[in-house]
Amino acid sequence: MHRAFRWFLYTILALVAAIWLTLGLLKPEHLKGPFVAWVQQQTGLPLEIGKLNYNPLYPNIVLAENVTLGPDIKIGKIYLEIAGGSWWQRQLHIAHLDIINPQITWRPGLTLPQPLRQLQVDDLTIDKLQFSWPNGSLEGGSLHLTNWQPIRNGVVIPLTEVNFDARADRLQYASLSLGKTRIEGTLTAEKLSVSDLQSDLFHGGMAAELTWDLKNNRIDFQQLALANWQLDLQTFPALPLALPQIFADQVTLENVSAIDLSKRFALNQATGTLEKLQWQPGQLPAFEYQGKLGEYTNGLFQLAEMQGEGRLRAEDWQVQLTGEAYAGKFSAELEGTRQPATLTIHELQLSDMQPELHPGWREWLATQPFQQVNLRRLDISHLSLISFDDSVPLTMKWLDLFLTDLRWTPQGIQSSNHKARLEGSWLELVWQTLVSRKTEFQAELAENKIQLEHFNTQLEESDFNISGQWGLDADTPHQLKLSLKKFDLEQLSDMLGPRYPFAGKSDLTLDLQAKGKDLTTIRQSLQGNATLDVLDLFVDGLKLDTYLDEQLTPKAPAPQSFEQLIGKLRGGDTAFNHVHLQLRADKGALDFSGSAFESITHLIGVKQGFDLGKQQWQLQLGLLNEQNKPELLGSMSGELTTPQLRFRLPANTVASWPTKPISYPPQGRQGSLRE
Questions:
Q1: Residue-wise over 186-221: b if at least 16 C-beta within 10 A, else e?
Q2: Contacts 24+ apart (CB under 8 A), 608-616
Q3: How far apart are CA 240 and CA 2, in angstroms?
């Protein structure tokens, strides 16, 4: 564009020189033919001057009309008032030069004669300009220059030491389009000073006062105001020129918007003030901002009606913001650094929000750029969430959450100030078919442990309570206490899937302790007690009673692998009146002695259990009669997932097994189990 504009001015100079040459010989009507031939010889282009008005009484004034040079240069009128000059010394001083309705097309490679050594124009006016070049065009242009000296000692310097006032109805440069534009200022060899710049740009307007250091390619805005801009970043024009450094003490924004649909990004209706703006090409800008923002969308986030202030610098940024999101409100005070990429949430308050979780949130979260996130304070009030991601079948109503002093890194989560604190509650949470209501919880993360002080909730008609801690060093024990009363197992069955549906009412208590940082040490140190009672348990797809009847043969059945056992149990269904499991853990040895299963027709007793340290089964099973004496003994041994079940017949003097609180089923066989 710079070369095209220089060529445009150079064209004007050449035509003026040609007309003055004709005037200087005092016989313009006689010399038009020879001069036209000379110009064609110099340029290879035909020159036509439709009418040349000259009055000898005013020898310093000439008017040329309908001037054309080749197919690309047409000028309606050229008015020339000469202050002085010498044709023989090729010097010209123009008092006034008016060029009306020029239509010029620049094509690279075109050269024009330049017969002057000195040219000074006191006042130049160009009006109704139509100018085009290979990657741009200008329509409805006007230009006013004063004190212009474009030729010195035979050298053309069209853009130096001049006062100017330019206007255009439309300017197209590559993919950049400007509407009505006005620019007024002064140009020297090293500096462009613009006292008034107004332009219709990006569907809005711009007003500015600036100084452009041409030597260092730096623009300093004394004033800059942008209004009603609508930027499409996806189709934002790439400017084919060296972008300058930009500095501004203050930039006023009014209703400025930007979108990029390919990145699901939108920033709408920004109104406020940018201060201390600094921008180097190829780098992020630095500035301070205070004002409002109508809407901000980035991926899964959609924020609206925002107001606040912020700061962006090369090494860090900071923002304080309030606004609306997901039918609720938020308030945030955030800070970040670039190296390393760190986000610090000083305070974040969310109230009455109703966000939705859609597929793709994991991928979006994986793109977050931060290597560390520090959370000082998070306060959530009455948040409701619904998930449309099938892998997260969650609905939540009225979540209240308070969280402080937490730090996240790719290596894990830890407290950022010796102790992180979590408190919260929700009115209702649904995960698949599991419904939790009136939940309250409280926990903390210290340097040596994660402690759950309490978690209490209602699972339909049952009460669930859990507390405990997880030690983060070898000296801090792990503890777990759990109580579940009258829990409907059908909720759990529906959640796990249709392979083996089951139902029943259960009570569960746990009180376990362990030490160690690795899984092996934890297994070897586990101790405590656990009890599970299930009433009216029904398991679809397993035929236990039929299988047990088939094992009551005169001789002990053959050994069976776990896979064989499961294969024989498949089909039919099984009902239990009562299941009682009790566990005593001591240094990794799990003892289930005293546990029992009361089906419709059979009673199964359990002794011994499982060695966590060796990952080996050591379980004894007994099929008991009405006197609680076993008539068939089973021994399960081997690896955790591949045990072997071996059977044997008991001695005649075998003692009865304890099974309280379970007793022999009322519908069980009386007397001996074998006929």
A1: bbeeeebebbebbbbbbebbbebbbbbebeeeebeb
A2: 609/583, 610/640, 612/523, 612/524, 612/526, 612/588, 613/520, 613/523, 613/524, 613/588, 613/589, 615/639, 615/640, 616/640
A3: 11
pTM for the full predicted model: 0.75
Is pLDDT above 80 for 299? no
Instruction: Report CA-CA distances (Å) from 228 to 171, 231, 269, 308.
Output: 19, 10, 8, 20
Phi then psi for 486, rounded to 5 degrees? 55, 45
Rounded alpha-carbon distances, angstroms, from residue 425 to 68, 82, 131, 306: 84, 89, 70, 28
* Rounded percentage of the chain residues whose pLDDT exceeds 70: 91
Average pLDDT value for residue range 602-622: 94
Residues with Cβ within 8 Å of 267's Cβ and at least 6 positions away in sequence, in order, are 257, 258, 259, 293, 295, 296, 297
CA angle 150, 155, 160 (to 5 degrees): 35
Classify strands 118-133 and 91-105 as parallel, antiparallel or unpaired. Answer: parallel
Side-chain half-sphere exposure of 167, counting CA atoms within 13 A? 9
pLDDT band at 363 (very low <50, low <70, confident <90, very high): confident
pLDDT digits (tens, 9 = 90+) for 496-527: 877 778 899 999 999 999 999 889 999 999 99
* Cβ-Cβ contacts under 8 Å for 595 (sequence gap 6 or more): 580, 581, 582, 583, 605, 606
If you average pLDDT over residues 11-24, what whole number do you get? Answer: 54
